[in-house]
Amino acid sequence: MRRLxxxxxxxxxxxxxxFVVDTTVFNVLRITVLNPDDVHSxxxxxxxxxxxxxxxxxxxxxxYWTFREQRRAVATREGVEFVVVSLGGMVIALxxxxxSHYAMGLTSVFADNVANIVGLVLGxxxxxxxxxVWVYHPERTATVxxxxxxxxxxxx
Length: 156
Known about the structure:
Layout: H1 2-31, H2 42-66, H3 75-103, H4 109-135, H5 147-155
């Protein structure tokens, strides 16, 4: 149980960094080049771009910190699975933004940010569960030895 709590805490820190990256990129794009006054689907594309940037940041943090004991020796398959799960989280966030902005007509910056946060929270629950049971599941991974373990083995 302690290991799960520690892992959840690390996931939370990585997620917080990803949240800052996502919301910052989203808002910068939404109020500049993808302003809905100039580009009707601007908030949608701002969310897609911000999520892609955050996916990369989150993958690095989760691979090398949160799930470092379960990461695979070869990053390619793990990375593909991570992106697939993250895109599922992005669909959840886009659905929240789409309902709020386009279906309900709540088009202010504040409303878009509330929808973005709701989508990020729901997507985070979805992603953690799939990262834990699929991408970084201990039975599916050939773990990469930590640097300290490699150094100890080399000194023997």
